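Render this sequence as a predicted structure.
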Amino acid sequence: MKQPNSQPTSELMLRETASQTAGPYVHIGLALAAAGNPTRDEEIWNGMARPEAEGEHIEIVGTVIDGNGDLVRDAFLEAWQADSKGVYQREYDLEKPFNSFGRTATTFEHGSEWTLRTVKPGRVRVDGIDEAHGAIDDKENDLASARSALLMAPHINLTLFARGINIHLQTRLYFEDEAEANAECPVLSRIESPARRQTLIARREEVDGKVRYRFDIRLQGEGETVFFDF
């Protein structure tokens, strides 16, 4: 009998590696503060913007709610967003005023809320994310150029990991006070139901004179958050 490893690579079908639900080690390894452990000197965490970062400084808070309406207290989230000028910072450096990437988590304390401290992102072109790092649209193609002129509303991309979720979930956070930009956003407008679009809108609050946005993620059931298949 011919052994599987004797076949040429070109004849083999490479299958997707099996997914696995997130367990307690996610927090222990990547969310030390949420797990109640001492933090490292160099940590990728929820402070995405230093005080000197340009733009409007904001805080975002939220919860994760399961299909029974109960809080998910051990969820882990990753955030990816443009800076205040609509440019993604692709190189992470703790010394930079702003980094486009951050992490946060729900906890068993403080109302099981996750938090992000960042700046409000600017609008980003659909195809030409950042010309300084190489736009992906073809300038000689009229259709591609027309698409690249479209601006997405300010948003933050969120990836969610949690118990019972075998494949991480992708969603977006938009801002309540960006109604005009939201109405024009070519991604948000792809969601036909206005009620479903509202599940992606963070509500503006003011706490102690500071701007804060609340964004609760519902995994299932009534008011389920829209998730994207990227």
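Summary. Residues 142-148 form the longest helix (7 residues). The radius of gyration is 20 Å.
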